[in-house]
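All the exercises in this workshop are built on plain-text protein records. A learned vocabulary of local backbone shapes supplies the integers on the structure line. Once this layout is familiar, the rest of the handout is easier to follow. An example says more than a description, so a record of this kind follows:
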Amino acid sequence: MEILDPKLQAYLDAHCDAEPEVLSKINRETHVKVLKANMLSGHYQGRLLSMLSKMVNPTNILEIGAFTGYSAICLAEGLADGGKLETIEVNAEMETMLRKNFEMAGVDDKINLHIGDAMPILLDFPDNYFNIVFIDADKKNNLNYFESSIQKVKPGGLIIIDNVLWKGKVYGIEKDADTESFRKLNDQVTVDNRVEKLILPIRDGILIIRKK
């Protein structure tokens, strides 16, 4: 998942805020108990999500793809008083762990967990409702999630999409379906005049999109 030199990543990790203890515990438990633990946002990316959320001070956040709750907890750190984070997880087997982790982090009253397919849940929210949307779910639907999310985000709000460099494959010669889907997403967002955008080379690539 890491596209940066490991020594550089270690330096970056050492020069940002420390990983909160509760998130460190979730990080360890995820790697011990859950398959594909590399899907966890982790320390450095988590601090980025926290900082972006604190800069926006959002009233409403949407997360598509909860996994074990690490990124939701990071994003919830920046919520305005009375704000809510709506997170969607397709895998019902994760519900018990998610609820436990949210309670352990003291954010269970700030987070509404939705179990099921993301698209119908997403479409039920009002337009121009969210300040931040974080997309980190099934990759083949990223473009669909983006097109739907842009209707749900307020002007000036952010859409954040994970894994957009796809292990470096997007700028290589690979032609597999997932790589091509990321190329299509990145190319379409690049020419979309509704938004400002940039890709950060963090972990597997994070696309930051601001709705005009």
Summary: Helices lie at 6-14, 21-33, 42-56, 70-76, 95-104, 118-123, 142-152, 177-190.
